[in-house]
């Protein structure tokens, strides 16, 4: 595979600081060994051939999507278990390429990706974003991760099968399941706290796992210095998870003021995923979403924007996520346009950079243009602080994408290739 040479600098860059929502005068960003070493006065980089000239454009930290499914090549998740793992990996490579081309230099997989995919990316076996993985999500029998229909009895739990979840019941089983994911080096553990759209037999308004089971999973994650993210929609399910130590709530479309208070009390994070409901409504059936799941979409679609507004105004740590499945993942950048309907451009940009980095426990490494950080940088046309929706059209907005100081995307598209 050809990899572009690492650059020594990005010249004439107007550096964006998402935290303060400010942009610098033109500066030179000096790079070494894939990291930023200095933000220097213009002209410092000289005319080095291994420098990128931003020509006065804005330079942002690479974007972070904290809720993706890189192995979900279809919206019919039940069929993944019958798909060759090699085919799943090939699709994952293609999907990860697409994410990088849209400016997402880091992604957190919320069920499905494993240590093998993360290692392949770390070893540059193919070009893609940095990957934080959790292995398989944990679900109770009949929960959001149980993909069996009501008449299906057999559940294949072989570790090699590319299901997104493992079904476990009782404190001893959930402890073992959490430990199995953690022993592979998982960055987090995902659990199902409520019903969901893509599962066939559970109600959206159900709660899942007992208090004792949730506490056991949280204990195992904390013992390994990791954390738990929880799939939940209703305030009842969200609040219960927060009280029991879940650090990151995924979706949360039906939260209320009491939920907001709990988020703040526990310094927890909310990861709304609004793009997925928009696309599931429009084309879920086309991409394999079962009829039973299609009927659930309206229950969560309407509340998503209200929840985002409520959380943002209430001072919750809000993080960018999309949760798109199959070919709908091409609409990942639409999340910027959807969120901008109810919150400021600066808030949306922070959710995909600094706040997301804090959730991933990678502050100072990603989500910022500063000395010591990975040189994951976007050279963009337009001003996302003034109008973040420019990032909803990456084909026009992105001039260059750097990952670890290497150009991976330019005006002609993906640079690295197998």
UniProtKB/TrEMBL annotation:
Domain of life: Bacteria
Classification via Gene3D superfamilies: Metal-dependent hydrolases, Urease, subunit C, domain 1
GO molecular function: hydrolase activity, acting on carbon-nitrogen (but not peptide) bonds
Domain Amidohydrolase-related residues, every copy: 58-404
InterPro entries per record: Amidohydro-rel (IPR006680), Metal-dep_hydrolase_composite (IPR011059), Metal_Hydrolase (IPR032466), Metallo-dep_Hydrolase (IPR051781), OTAase-like (IPR057744)
PANTHER family given in the database record: ALPHA-D-RIBOSE 1-METHYLPHOSPHONATE 5-TRIPHOSPHATE DIPHOSPHATASE (PTHR43135)
Protein name: Amidohydrolase-related domain-containing protein
Organism: Pseudonocardia autotrophica (Amycolata autotrophica)
